[in-house]
Amino acid sequence: MNEYLKSYFPVADIISNTFGNCCEVVVHDLTSPESSVVYVANGNITNRRIGQSFDHLVRQVLLNKKFKNDSVSNYYFEGPNGSHIKSSSALIREPDGNVVGMICINIATNLFEDLKSFIDTFLSTEKDSIFLQEEEVQPDIMSVIDSIIAKTIGAYDPQGLSRKKSVEIVKFLDEKGIFLVKGAIDKVASLLGVSKVTIYSYLDEAKGKR
């Protein structure tokens, strides 16, 4: 784990304690994408556990039109048993500017759904697409995504990878939304030392189409 992230653990605790049982705070280490969760304060909201990977980083955070100044606030996703989760996330940078992690605040909103007058404001969302088009992805966001790809594949020797493990790596990256970004398949193919056609075949196999 990146030691710099430990300074955010008390921050996670104080936020969770302030908002109570409806609030969960998760700290991710993005230098270890496959086991990015390194700290959880009140993990009962999404059942997050240390050692798990991120779920919403690419789709809901980095590709969100509201993502500015390394953060995005008030996006929604569905939690366990259909619960409604309101979330805000921010990237964590070391003093030299390198992105090493992310802190996420998750609030279960089901408790507020009987408060109709409050909910009209609290749960308001935009109906148009919140996702960036490929040409709108900022260079800095691309560097984060490139780092996730490199860190995911970099732990292995491409020449020594079995097809099964290669399929697992491609499936992981696909599930995390990496291939929503233009050029990601080319980068993965290059790092694995295979062609784009092979990556597509891995994707088909991962999805049970072969």
CATH architecture of the largest domain: 2-Layer Sandwich
Helix fraction bin: 25-40%
Strand order of the largest sheet: 2-1-5-4-3
Highest-level CATH class of the largest domain: Alpha Beta
How many strands, which pairing sense, and closed or not: the largest β-sheet?
5 strands, antiparallel
Pfam families: HTH_22 (PF13309), PAS_6 (PF08348)
Domain YheO-like: 5-117
Domain Transcriptional regulator DauR-like HTH: 145-204
Structure description:
By secondary structure, the chain is α+β, with helices and mostly antiparallel strands. The chain has two domains: 3-122, 2-Layer Sandwich (Beta-Lactamase); 134-206, no CATH class. Helix content is 35%, strand content 19%. It has seven helices and five strands, in the order H-E-E-H-E-E-E-H-H-H-H-H. The chain has helices at 9-19, 57-62, 116-122, 139-154, 163-175, 184-192, 196-206, and strands at residues 23-29, 37-41, 71-78, 84-93, 99-108. Helix 4 (139-154) packs parallel to helix 6 (184-192) and helix 5 (163-175) packs across helix 7. The chain is globular. The mean pLDDT is 85.
